[in-house]
Amino acid sequence: MTALLALEAVSYQFPGNPTPALQAASLPIAAGQRIVVLGRNGAGKSTLLLVASGIVRPQQGRVWLHGAPVDYSRSGLRRLRQHVGLVMQSPDDQLFSASVWQDISFGPLNLGLNAAEARQAVQEAAALCDVTDLLDRPTHALSGGQKARVALAGVLAMRPQCLLVDEATAGLDLWARQQVVRVFDRLVAQGGTVVLATHDLALARRWADLVVVLHEGQIVAVAPPAEVWADPALRALIAPPEAWEGL
Amino acid sequence: MLRIIDQYAFANRLRAVDPIQKGAIAVATILLCLVLDRPLVGWLALAWMVMVTVWYARVPLRVAGAVIGAESVFLALSVIGIAVSVGNEPPAAALLAIPFGPLWLSATGASLQTALHVLSRALGSAAALNFLILTTPLIDLIELLRRLRAPALLIELMALSYRALFVLLDTLDQMVTAQTARLGYASWRATLRSSALLGSRLFIVAYQRSQALEVALTARGFAGELRVLPLSYTVDRQLWLIGGLIGASLV
Ligand SMILES: Nc1ncnc2c1ncn2[C@@H]1O[C@H](COP(=O)(O)OP(=O)(O)OP(=O)(O)O)[C@@H](O)[C@H]1O
Ligand SMILES: [Mg+2]
Question: Taking the model in full, what pTM does it have?
Answer without folding.
Answer: 0.82
